[in-house]
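Q: What would this chain look like folded?
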Amino acid sequence: MRQEAPCPTRQAMDELDVAFPQAERTGPPGGRYATELFTDGVGALTVFRPVRSPRDHGRIEVVDLPAADLAVTVHAGPHDDIDVSYGRLGDWVVSHALGIDGPVHETYLAGPRDNGDARRWRTEIGWPVFRLTPG
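A: My prediction, written as structure tokens:
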């Protein structure tokens, strides 16, 4: 019988869920993924959950995530084909010459922790872009 290796993102989310129960959460969880994860298969990732009273706990560190300008799309459904949504967003960013270096952002608006029906999952994907207008 073949056993899959533990998913580091899932393990990190489990740790965040234990450290910060539902009443302490202020928004959906997310992740920031270095480009190298996609191009080289190895790179940095940060998994996070907004909470009322951040505190270090075990491997969990309090971080302030910097603001970022992003081109955004929402992937609907299971993650089996999320690469298609990434590809479409990436094509749009490249065709508009707006891409900059920086991590790709994901926000898990609804996922396996919220609903067992994968058709109802929603993952927001944010690609770092160059701001064209003053903010």
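Residues 1-5 have pLDDT under 50 and may be disordered.
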